[in-house]
Amino acid sequence: RSPPDSLGEITSGDSTQRATLRLSPNPVRAGIVIRFQNVRPLAAVSIMISDSAGRRMRTIAASATPSGAGSVSWDGTADQGRRVARGTYFVSLYMARDLVAAKSVTVLGN
Q1: Which pTM does this prediction carry?
Q2: For residue 68, is pLDDT > 70?
Q3: Integer CA distances (angstroms), 69 to 21, 27, 37, in order
């Protein structure tokens, strides 16, 4: 497989797949489940959560299953363990160094 041609597209031979990212619930008060599909089977992926200014708040490592899917949970905390403030955050899915999908989530606070 070659790297994505554009955001979310992974090419393989004659076919192109779009990596997908689902966030549930959204908006969120406490924790969220981040599900991804259509990534390379068994690929090591990382989820990066950043604030609206682009500052990295949290990075979560994950692995895809043989079917190219997986999920992780985010408890609403930054890498240092403190809860993030209310606002809009961006959840980005990376395979190797390639950004393959991104979505926003609204954190409502406690």
Answers
A1: 0.80
A2: yes
A3: 10, 23, 4
